[in-house]
C-alpha cells in the first residue's frame, strides 16, 4: 500500500492536485486503456482513504468517526482486493 506521505509527495502535498492528477490520467482514454488507468487510480485513492481512516482510529475524539473509519477500512480494503483481482484476471497485471 502507498503511504499517505508518498501520495502527498506524488502530488506536491496538495490533495486537490492529487485528485486533478488522478482525473487527468483518465482523459482521452477509452476501452481497456481507460479501465486499467481507472482501476490503478482508484486503488491509490482507496489506499489513501484507508490510511486516513487508520489515523482516525488512533486520533479521533468522536466514536462516530471511529465507527465510520472501521467501515471505510473494511469496505475499501475489500474493493481494493476486487480491483486488483480484475487487473490480474483481465490484464495479467499484478498490482501490488
Shape verdict: flat
Q: Which residues form runs of ≥5 with pLDDT under 50? A: none
- Total strand count, please? 0
Assembly state (oligomeric):
single chain
| Helix share, percent | over 70%
Q: Report strand %.
A: under 5%
Structural class: mainly alpha
What's the number of helices? 4
- The end-to-end distance, rounded to whole angstroms, is 7 Å
**Average pLDDT:** 87
The major beta sheet can be summarized as: none
Task: Provide the gyration radius in Å.
Answer: 15 Å
**H/E series, N to C?**
HHHH
What does it look like?
This protein is an all-alpha fold. Helices cover 78% and strands 0% of the residues. The chain has helices at 4-10, 15-24, 31-59, 63-91. The longest helix is centred in the middle third of the chain and has 29 residues, at 31-59. It is flat, with a radius of gyration of 15 Å. The chain starts with a helix and ends in a 5-residue tail after the last helix.
Amino acid at each position: 500500500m502507498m503511504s499517505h506521505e508518498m501520495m502527498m509527495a506524488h502530488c506536491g502535498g496538495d490533495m486537490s492536485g492529487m485528485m486533478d492528477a488522478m482525473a487527468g490520467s483518465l482523459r482521452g482514454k477509452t476501452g481497456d486503456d481507460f479501465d486499467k488507468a481507472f482501476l490503478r487510480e482508484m486503488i491509490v485513492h482507496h489506499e489513501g482513504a484507508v490510511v486516513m481512516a487508520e489515523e482516525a482510529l488512533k486520533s479521533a475524539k468522536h466514536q462516530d468517526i471511529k465507527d465510520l473509519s472501521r467501515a471505510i477500512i473494511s469496505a475499501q480494503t475489500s474493493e481494493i482486493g476486487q480491483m486488483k483481482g480484475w487487473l490480474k484476471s483481465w490484464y495479467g497485471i499484478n498490482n501490488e
